[in-house]
C-alpha cells in the first residue's frame, strides 16, 4: 500500500517540481528545456581532496599533510567486492537500475515527511549522496533535494555506475577526520583496505550512516550493533550464507588507532616553505612578481597560496633529502648544549656532494610553524663571513699564498677604526696566522686592497636575501651587515669550499610527484663556478688549520678531513661556527632572539660543541 501511495504522490509532485524548474529558468519568456538546464550543471570535476605526504630520503613517511581532509583515493578495482555489496544493500538496493534517483524511495519519504510536517527522511540514493558530498550542502530543504536529484541525474549521464560507486566509497566520512575507506582503514586498524578482514570491513561500513553516533572510539557498541545488522542484510539478500554471517559477526574487532604521522617539524616546516618557492619559480610567479606593483604582488601572493593549497589537496608526494638519523642528532645536539642556557640556537646540515639539505634545527624546543631560526633569523655573521667576502676573493685576484704577510696592526679609515680581539696588535703576520686566529684589521685591509665591490661581486652568487647596498662598506669584512644572513644561507655558502669552488643552491625537495609517480615539479638548479681550484685549496687549508690549531680547536676531529670558521659579533651577541667534515657541511648559530650579550658562553663554545656532535 505504501509503495502505491508513493507512486501516486510522485506522479503528481515530481512533474510539478520539474515544471517549476522550467518556469523558473525562463529567459525572454522562453523556457529552457530540461536538457539545457542539465547542461548548466557541471559534474566533470570530481577530484576529491586527499592528504599529501612528505617522504624522507629513504622513502619513509615523515609527515602526512591534511589539506584539509585525511583521504587516500582508492581505485574501484582495489575496493573489496564485499564492501561494495554492503553499501549497495544498506544504502541503495536499486543502485544499478535507477537513473540517479529512486521514485519509490522518494514517494515513501514524501509520505513520511508530509505526515510529520517536516523533513524526516531523505530517500537519497548513492548517486545523490555523491552529488551532495561533492557539489551541494547538507541542509535539509526541498530546494536542496531537488538540486540533489538534478545533479545525481547528471552524474549518471556523465559517469558509469562503477565510477559513481568509487566516488561514493572514497568521499564518505568515517568520523575522526577520516574520509574514504582507505583513510578509515589506516586510522582505525593501521592497515590498508586490502588487509582488512570482512568483519573489519563491515565494522567500518557501519560508520558513515551517522558518523558521530557510530564513532568507534566513543560508541564502539553502537558501531558493533550496526555492523551485525549490515551482515544480517547481506545474509537476507543471499550474498553470504548463514554460517559465514555468524563467523563474521563473531570475529573480534580490535582497534589499533593510528595517529597522524607528523615527525621532524624543524625540517618539514621548511619543506612546506620551499614548496611555495618551487611552485613560484616553475609556474612563472617569480617573473610576475618582479614586474608587479606592491598591490599586484599582494594579489599574486594570494593566487600562489591558493595554487599551493590546491596542489596539496590533490594528494601529492613530496620527496625530500631528509636523513632521519642526522636530523635527530641535530635537534638533540642543540637541545643538549642549550637546554639549560638562556640562549637560542639553530643549525643546518647539507650533504654538499648533492647540495641537499638533510637536517635542520629551528631552535631549542622548536614547535612546528614557530619562528624558524635556521632560515628566518637574519643575524650578523661576524668573522664567519671572512673566507667568503675577503680571503677567497683576495686569493683569486692576487694569486697570493697563505704565507704572504699582512699588517695586523691598528687600522683607521676616517671614523672607522676596527680592533682585533681584546684590542691586541700584532704587526705584520702571515695571512695564515691572521686567518686561523681571526684577526680583524688584516681582513679589513685585504678587502680594501681588492675593492669592496669585488668582494661583494663574488658573494652575490650565494643569493643572500637580506644583503643590501648599504652593506657595501669596509665593516662588512668583519661581519658588519645591516641584517646579515640566516644559518642556512651561510651554511649553503660554505659548501663552495668542499665542492671545488662550485656553488648551487641547496634544497630539501628532490621532486614532487602525484600518487602514480608522475613528476610534477623538480628543481633544475645549475652550478656556478665562483673560484678556481687553486683558491679553494688555499682557503681549505686555512679552514682545516682553524679547526686543528685556531679558534675552532674545541671542535677538532682527529683523523678527519674537516675545516671551518668561527664567528663572533660585537658584544658577543652571536656565536657562529660553519664547517665541513667528509661529505657534510654544517652551520650552527647561538644567540638570543632579541640580540644581547652572551659573553658568558664564549668559553663554553656551545656552537662548536653542537657542530661536533652533529658531524662526529
Automatic annotation (TrEMBL):
UniProt cross-references to Pfam families, sorted A to Z: Transgly, Transpeptidase
Gene3D superfamilies documented for this protein: Biosynthetic peptidoglycan transglycosylase-like, DD-peptidase/beta-lactamase superfamily
Gene Ontology molecular function, alphabetical: penicillin binding; peptidoglycan glycosyltransferase activity; serine-type D-Ala-D-Ala carboxypeptidase activity
Domain named Glycosyl transferase family: residues: 61-231
Domain Penicillin-binding protein transpeptidase: 345-586
Subcellular location: Cell membrane
Sorted UniProt keywords: Carboxypeptidase, Cell membrane, Cell shape, Cell wall biogenesis/degradation, Glycosyltransferase, Hydrolase, Membrane, Multifunctional enzyme, Peptidoglycan synthesis, Protease, Transferase, Transmembrane, Transmembrane helix
Catalytic activity line of the entry: [GlcNAc-(1->4)-Mur2Ac(oyl-L-Ala-gamma-D-Glu-L-Lys-D-Ala-D-Ala)](n)-di-trans,octa-cis-undecaprenyl diphosphate + beta-D-GlcNAc-(1->4)-Mur2Ac(oyl-L-Ala-gamma-D-Glu-L-Lys-D-Ala-D-Ala)-di-trans,octa-cis-undecaprenyl diphosphate = [GlcNAc-(1->4)-Mur2Ac(oyl-L-Ala-gamma-D-Glu-L-Lys-D-Ala-D-Ala)](n+1)-di-trans,octa-cis-undecaprenyl diphosphate + di-trans,octa-cis-undecaprenyl diphosphate + H(+); Preferential cleavage: (Ac)2-L-Lys-D-Ala-|-D-Ala. Also transpeptidation of peptidyl-alanyl moieties that are N-acyl substituents of D-alanine
GO cellular component: outer membrane-bounded periplasmic space; plasma membrane
Signal sequence residues: none
Transmembrane spans: 6-24
Gene Ontology terms: biological process: cell wall organization; peptidoglycan biosynthetic process; proteolysis; regulation of cell shape
Family: In the C-terminal section; belongs to the transpeptidase family.
Entry protein name: Penicillin-binding protein
Native organism: Bacillus canaveralius
Phylogenetic lineage: Bacteria, Bacillati, Bacillota, Bacilli, Bacillales
